[in-house]
């Protein structure tokens, strides 16, 4: 496991790694908050995105397949698929100095300040960790402190990516307005109260 020397990115990577390690064996085909993608596809996307960030920084190889068209067929065990991607991103960002004015990222606007670039990679990992957790009945790894730390990157980058990487922003429920996690998820177009379809059916029957 490689550390990036950026606490925010390391925390987001740890969140994603811990969730993937805990997915039950029958969880990989379950639906997720990412419409049209199951858990396997979200994992492929998340790993591919981290490889994309690493490739933009180092000029090395990016993901083998398009992260926005994941096949759902895992080429290796989940942890073995994820680990090299996280290590590559961590190693790449370890070479980025705080305060650097222009750092390359794989999505528009393609160059941003160092802190926003790190936040963007961390945002991707942490939110997809939440996607996988809620899809498989695991505790959310997205803490209020982590969500609050990710919000500046979300605000800097989400708008140009609406309809592509993020959905339209949602209004959080009034009682969730003070919750950084719910506010971040809603801003990114995710329903903070999302639950798998079978869980929603069970709740209606009770």
UniProtKB/TrEMBL annotation:
This is TIGR03086 family protein. InterPro entries: CHP03086 (IPR017520), DinB/YfiT-like (IPR034660), Maleyloyr_isom (IPR017517), MDMPI_metal-binding (IPR024344). Pfam families: MDMPI_N (PF11716). The lineage of its organism: Bacteria, Bacillati, Actinomycetota, Actinomycetes, Kitasatosporales. It comes from the Bacteria. It comes from Streptomyces flavotricini. Residues 9-133 form the Mycothiol-dependent maleylpyruvate isomerase metal-binding domain.
């Amino acid at each position: 496991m490689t550390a990036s020397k950026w606490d925010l990115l390391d925390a987001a990577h740890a969140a994603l790694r811990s969730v993937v390690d805990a997915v039950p064996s029958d969880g990989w085909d379950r639906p997720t908050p990412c419409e049209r993608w199951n858990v396997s596809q979200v994992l492929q996307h998340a790993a591919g995105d981290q490889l994309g960030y690493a490739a933009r920084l180092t000029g090395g190889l990016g993901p083998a397949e398009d992260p926005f068209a994941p096949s759902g067929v895992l080429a290796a065990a989940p942890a073995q698929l994820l680990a090299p991607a996280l290590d590559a991103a961590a190693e790449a960002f370890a070479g980025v100095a705080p305060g650097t004015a222009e750092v390359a990222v794989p999505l528009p606007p393609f160059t941003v300040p160092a802190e926003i670039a790190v936040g963007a990679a961390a945002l991707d990992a942490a939110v997809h960790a939440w996607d996988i957790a809620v899809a498989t009945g695991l505790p959310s790894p997205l803490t209020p402190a982590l969500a609050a730390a990710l919000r500046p990157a979300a605000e800097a980058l989400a708008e140009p990516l609406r309809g592509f990487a993020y959905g339209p922003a949602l209004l959080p429920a009034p009682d969730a307005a003070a919750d950084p996690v719910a506010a971040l998820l809603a801003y990114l177009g995710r329903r903070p109260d999302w639950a798998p379809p079978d869980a929603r059916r069970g709740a209606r029957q009770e």
